[in-house]
Amino acid sequence: MSRRLRLVALVAVVVAVVAGTVAFVAISRAAQQRAVATAPAQPTVAPSAVTGPRVVFRNSAIGPNYGRVAAVRLADPSGPRAVLSPSCDRVFASTDRILCLASDRGLVTTYTATVLTTAGAHVVDLPLTGSPSRARLSRDATLAATTSFVAGDSYASTSFSTRTVVTHLGDRRSQDLENFTLLHDGRATAPADRNLWGVTFAADDDTFYATAAFGGRTWLVRGRLSTQTLETVRDDAECPSLSPDGTRVAFKTRGTRAPGDWRISVLDLATGRETPLAEPRSVDDQVEWLDDARVIYGLPGVGTAAAESNIWVVPADGTGAPQLFIAKGWSPAVVR
To answer: What's the CA gap between 24 and 138, in Å, rounded?
Structure first.
């Protein structure tokens, strides 16, 4: 066979493979959409019925409302849920704003980060350059933090890359944490392999905590927006969440376990005392504080219900045992 014929044959094979892949993706996507659309709908209530203290989350019940923003009354987490129209991979909420990180997995996947009113009306779009990972609003909704995977899709991987941006919603000004000065052992350092993710805001709208990874280790870092600095606090801490009273940070920690196997701990910022919580399962989530005594977090469902994740609650002092808090939910945010 001549070189030209070999080239033509190769091109034909490549075209066939690409066409087959496109067809497979289209058929799989259509099948998933049919399964979701034909599943029985959950009973829902109007958003006006779920006001005041509430939990906002991603609805994970298979059906026409799968992936949409949902809310239940804080006093009745197993009660009827209100559902808004936006579909989100990650969601967070404050009293009057909702932050929605979403991906549209078509033939070409696109990503969006949107701030909405509590009624679902569009407010502003934010930077998002990759797959949604973490979302946070400050308590007064003046700041929004987004983390996306620019490369890779799991914190258990050794080859992922993230981008974390804090946006001031008043003037739409954004600060990329990659541009902040990182201080380790009191000295500025700029490791080429550093990644930053999982912001949690303090009440002063300047201080925040986040995760920094470099040199094969992860660190809890304290940041300042005003000085654009990050300072390491302790190692082996990921996806922090600051308690409502600002005295403790909950995070996931790996210890000597295998990559991708995390447990939840709580750090007292004043004493440095760390308390492992009574959740024996691996939690790959940025936990949320239900109140000053308990944290909530998402875990995948089991077996055929793996896509229908659930929200669990456990005491923050290491006692007790995890309890189901909201069935068929993910990415919770407590609005007090």
So the answer is: 42
According to the model, what pLDDT value does residue 154 have?
79
φ and ψ at residue 271, rounded to 5 degrees: -100, -20
pLDDT of 38 reads 52
For residue 24, pLDDT beyond 60: no
Spatial distance between the Cα atoms of 239 and 295, rounded to a whole number of angstroms: 13
* Residue 119: count of CB within 10 angstroms of its CB: 10
Average pLDDT over residues 121-126: 94
**Element of type H or E holding 13:** helix 3-38
| Interatomic CA distance for residues 333 and 71, integer angstroms | 9
CA 36 to chain centre: 23
Whether residue 42 has pLDDT greater than 90: no
Residue with tokens 């991906």: 103
Q: Specify the pTM.
A: 0.86
**How far, rounded to the nearest angstrom, does the alpha carbon of residue 75 sit from its chain's CA centroid?**
24
Q: How many CB atoms lie within 10 A of CB 10?
A: 10
d(Cα 325, Cα 305) in Å, to the nearest integer?
A: 17
